[in-house]
Structure formats: structure tokens, C-alpha cells
Design a protein that fits this description.
This protein has 7 helices and 10 strands. By secondary structure, the protein is of the alpha+beta class. A 6-stranded mixed beta sheet has the order 4-3-10-5-8-9. A two-stranded antiparallel sheet has the order 1-2.
Length: 206
């Protein structure tokens, strides 16, 4: 579930993503992307059901919103939560690092995209897509998909399956490519303490 907007943290272009089934549902609804411009007059959610409609809902947590909207739509959704609260016609308490929650357990946490949703009074985007997805050359797509799948199961990607993207911390720090202090530095002195390896050895209970 990729998202992009002007970041409230930096004032520059920001992007964030998390894996889920939301993008697939969007594609099956017949869309490649959703562009949100302007803001809702009051707290609202967007429901895409092979067509677009809106309905207002009260401010509740992302998990409760997900369960409620999933019952209504039988689809996939992204939500934002208590990082912002509606008051009259404006969103208050917008935390600049607020994340977007999708499929309950996934978070797009980079660049404050949740705060952007909050500023638009947009609680959630729910999608139910029923259309088949057609491609120009299905046989070639299947070949490419198989090659990518096989590559993703090699030792080259094992750290992502075991440690997640936190497995990149030490490598990026060693290459002086680890954004630190809002990109003022490219290395972090305590990178070891926030690495995937550190959390795996001290915190993880599998």
C-alpha cells in the first residue's frame, strides 16, 4: 500500500508503504491510484465499491474502524487513528509522524502520511473490488512473477524474512546511507541498538 504526499515533517515530498491486500483490491476495483485533494467538511471515510461514495463515521481507533468498515464493505481498508481528533471543522493534535494502518496489522509509518489523512478529515479508505484484472500478455507476466518469487526465496533476501526491513540498518549505516536527524547526517552512532539483529537477540519471542 504505497502512499505519497508533501511530508508534514519536512515540507518536501514524502512517501511511505506497507505490504497488504489493499492495492490488489484497488486494482480489482478498476483503479491504479487514488488521489485525494482538498479536505472533508467533517470526519469521513471513502468507500470505493467499483464506484465511489462517501459516508461520515465517528472518530474511533484504527482497529475498531477496520472491523466496522470491513463488516460494512467486506473489503480492504486503510485507516488513521488518534494521532488526530476532529474538533468542529478542523483536525487537532496532528502528530507529524502519524502512520497509516492497513489490514489492521500493517503500518505505513514514514513521513507522516497519517497526519496528512488527518488534515483531510479522512478517517479511512475502504475498498471492495470485484472486477477481474486483465493484462496484455498473461503468460509473460506469469514468467516474471515466477522469477521474482524464486529470487525472493534465496539467501539474498533471507534477512528480510527473518528481521524485516530493520535488517537494513547496519548495512546502510556502514555505507553512510542511513538518514539521521532528519537527513542532517548519514550515519547513526547507536545504529547497533536499533538494528534488526539487536531486537531479534534481545526482544523477539518467536
Amino acid at each position: 500500500m504505497p502512499s505519497a504526499s508533501k511530508s508534514p515533517q519536512t515540507g518536501f515530498m514524502g512517501d511511505s508503504l506497507s505490504s497488504s491486500f489493499w492495492s490488489l483490491a484497488l486494482k480489482r476495483a478498476g483503479y491504479d491510484a487514488v488521489v485525494i485533494s482538498g479536505a472533508c467538511d467533517s470526519l469521513s471515510y471513502l468507500f470505493i465499491d467499483d464506484d465511489v461514495s462517501t459516508s461520515r463515521r465517528p472518530g474511533i481507533s484504527p482497529a475498531k474502524a477496520a472491523l466496522r468498515l470491513r463488516r460494512l464493505s467486506a473489503g480492504r481498508l486503510v485507516t488513521t487513528g488518534f494521532a488526530w481528533r476532529p474538533s468542529a471543522r478542523e483536525a487537532e493534535n496532528k502528530v507529524l509522524y502519524a502512520a497509516i494502518s492497513n489490514d489492521i496489522g500493517r503500518r505505513a509509518g514514514r513521513a507522516g502520511m497519517g497526519a496528512v489523512m488527518g488534515s483531510k478529515n479522512l478517517k479511512a479508505i475502504a475498498i471492495r473490488g470485484t472486477r477481474p484484472v486483465s493484462v496484455a500478455n498473461l503468460e509473460e507476466v506469469q514468467k516474471v512473477a515466477e522469477r521474482l518469487y524464486n529470487k525472493s526465496q534465496t539467501t539474498l533476501t533471507e534477512k528480510y524474512r527473518v528481521l524485516g526491513t530493520a535488517g537494513n540498518v547496519l548495512t546502510l549505516n556502514r555505507l553512510a546511507a542511513l538518514p539521521t536527524l532528519n537527513f542532517q547526517q548519514s550515519t547513526f552512532d547507536d545504529a547497533e541498538k536499533v538494528s534488526g539483529e539487536y531486537f531479534m537477540s534481545t526482544t523477539w519471542r518467536g
